[in-house]
Amino acid sequence: MPFSTKATLIAFQADVEHYPCHAKLSIGDTVTFDGAELKGEMCPHVMPQIANALYTLFLAGPRYVNPGYYNLFWYACGSSADPSKECFDGNGWNPVNKEFVTSPYHVSCLQDPRAFRWPPNETRDVMKDVCIVCPDTRTAAVFKAEPYDLATAGSELPYTRREITILDRVNKAGGPFPINQILSLFSEKERLEIYPPLSPVIIGAMLEELEALHFIKLARGQVSATETGAARVALYKTEIPAGHAKALGLYD
What we know:
10 strands, Arc Repressor Mutant, subunit A, about 30% helix, about 250 residues, five-stranded antiparallel β-sheet
């Protein structure tokens, strides 16, 4: 951590004509968490699930994968019982190699629409997104939760500032820079008298987070800033007091 996160209403999978959303939410509505505040309109009945997802992604960022993602079942077709096939698969199933057509608002609409397709998906993407479905299954609002930036407020802000500063120093160093020499980009005072103190293990963790957001590239023991990363540093200079940016050495 830290990451800023958001949940966006992306679909209604059930019958909103007869069972409209009583929170009066619309597709595209977003709730954000910047490390300190939840902002945006949220239905109280789905709030616990959304808050839990935003907290999980706040800690793990884009690296988080729902355990259900690993289930191979999503890429198998439909099946019917066939005891004669037990000698092959051990349990006795017959594959139904065709696409099932279900009626609108069938309970199967509540699952990931990419699951159980025939022919199977060419990519492994079922359950890859972190999604929350409203408990009112008559409406079944679907929210996609995702990280979108480093945290910009709250208790984890010191870590964000350290990561931005590392990103800035690496960018100024130019070209791929040896990871094991990053500490040399900081004075002893900068390393040890600013919270959190810099050490190889915390630098490694911070680089992992910066890479997850595509702010840097890591390869063969070296790190380089991306254009996206350089742009994020430039923007960050405008987001904090000028005195703070100067203290962090963000100005050339």
